[in-house]
Amino acid sequence: MEYYFITGTSKGIGKALTEAALQKDNTYVYGISRNCSLKHERYHHLHFDLSDTTALRNNLHKIFVPLKEPEKIVLVNNAGVLGEIGYIGSLPSDNFEFVFDINVIGPAILMNTFLSAYYDQKCPKIILNISSGAGKKPLDGWSAYCASKAALDMLSLTCQKEQDLLGTGVKVYSLAPGVVDTAMQAHIREAEIDSFSELQKFKDYKEKGELYKPEEVARKILTHFIQEAAQKPVISSIRDYY
Ligand SMILES: NC(=O)c1ccc[n+]([C@@H]2O[C@H](COP(=O)([O-])OP(=O)(O)OC[C@H]3O[C@@H](n4cnc5c(N)ncnc54)[C@H](OP(=O)(O)O)[C@@H]3O)[C@@H](O)[C@H]2O)c1
Key word Nuclease present in the record (predicted)? Predict the structure, then answer.
């Protein structure tokens, strides 16, 4: 069996990725999010709120269970939030903690425990962090999100360097999925123009049908970053595979 641990499986990219992975008979998916919207004989849902990092730390043994003769083990840190859209100076201070807990601290805890729990398993292991172009350039109104995705990129680069030095063969990616038609994009379009100067551009993406479909992004992620053994840069963008 190939075992996948995917966060944010209740909707959007994470749900599409889970459904795509389950199309192969030899996959088993552990999904992690607050809500469950999937039912499948090879899917097990774990209800977690990733903003509650104490509960996450106390329950890691329920996620990374012993696996029987795995052929491949994959961790996908996909769950993410944009947080409140607004300029620094006008935001509630707890917004920063909330966004970082879900986008950085949760993924870091999961990466740390994944690597220690399956250290002895000699099969291919992949850590795929879903990042964003927003981690590479500033977007006004998105400060916590941009900073959190930049942190996720560096977490991934450091982790890959360590795994290379250890000679484990573990592959780590921080992948920008492009602009995808999900609830996160709907949330962006609800922003006020004085909180986000590029609002119209994002409204146009939707109106002109320029958003990627979650299903096609999921297929590309699976094909190019999970099924193919070829080496790719740690910091990658799905746009390079269209
Ligand atoms: N859509 C885009 O254009 C785009 C662009 C660049 C990067 N991304 C990245 O892609 C990833 C997926 O985004 P998406 O567009 O698919 O978003 P989405 O449709 O809003 O889905 C987000 C997922 O994250 C989960 N999640 C949110 N808060 C959570 C929490 N507190 N605890 C546990 N799970 C939580 C949600 O599950 P529950 O609500 O059930 O908990 C949901 O399954 C994110 O990391 C995002 O930053 C998206």
Answer: no
